[in-house]
């Protein structure tokens, strides 16, 4: 059975995480992605250890994952001849995705307004921190800044610590990557009826604000700001992480009464059952302390065995390598394999979408791995390619 995006062709001008992860998802679903990379300003992800392979074939594990199932061509977009190469490529590709600051692609003559003149069905997606409009559109930023400015960080933490860092890039992935994928897929569907492309302005800070959903809705209605440790999801209830006797943790999400009662029964905290509905901070703190004392008396393995017997929304906090080996994720196919440049097999995290490849993925390779073959397919002679190399255009 063919993958759902077979036949879709994407020209990818992105770097780091948001854009490359978006095109990884699209490539995993069958889209043909050609990544345009600078030969002089390498993507920083390439230098993040640990590494896979040796010598010229060595790439970082993160890069090998983010760029799987893609081709790579090295072009310095500022050099003479670069625009000609891109314009020869464009008729073969119907989607462009880029991640430069606003105005960069226009200065290069590769903005949507210019390209749609000759390719009206082009779908063009720009991913930036603050979007293409507004007073902050030209400002630099990273995930932590988008979470801060959007208000999300203002209630994601504890009273004693303030905002806390996440181990994953929330705005980058949920905003830059996932929103870009959704917007591109929606634009593809619309194009089937209109035969017209469109411009997609993806802002990671917009996406971070959109993620506040319930807390944001409540704040807009009441005029009151959520605070640290006051909401049911940020420590206001006994919904929390609890440390075991061996310094591991379990997650307790027993919000509904039936789950809460099952939790308290297993922990032999019968005296708290009648008070579980009291959501006052003082009572919830007492319940949390009682749970904490019980959980802290036994190691993680004890609680794993006990809570496996009941359904109470309680699970262990696993390390990454423990999660990779968990029978559930193994059966779900979340650990997949990819073939590297030297034909070695590499383990990678799979896409969470249901369109799983039966064969192994192709791991992301070295910078410009497909430059020569692509240039030849565009009709460039060996002599022309040599001149472009001498000029450091490719």
Q: Enumerate the spans where pLDDT stays under 50 for 5 or more consecutive residues.
A: none
DSSP strand count: 16
Q: End-to-end distance, in Å? A: 37 Å
The tally of domains stands at 2
Largest sheet: 6 strands, parallel
CATH topology of the largest domain: Rossmann fold
| Oligomer description | single chain
Estimated share of beta-strand residues: 15-25%
Radius of gyration: 25 Å
CATH superfamily of the largest domain: Crotonobetainyl-coa:carnitine coa-transferase, domain 1
From the helix content, strand content and strand pairing, which structural class follows? Answer: alpha/beta
Query: So, CATH architecture of the largest domain?
Result: 3-Layer(aba) Sandwich
Tally of separate helices: 16
Please identify the top-level CATH class of the largest domain.
Alpha Beta
**Overall geometry:** elongated
What value does the average pLDDT take?
A: 94
Strand arrangement in the largest pleated sheet: 5-2-1-6-7-10
- Helix fraction, binned, reads 25-40%
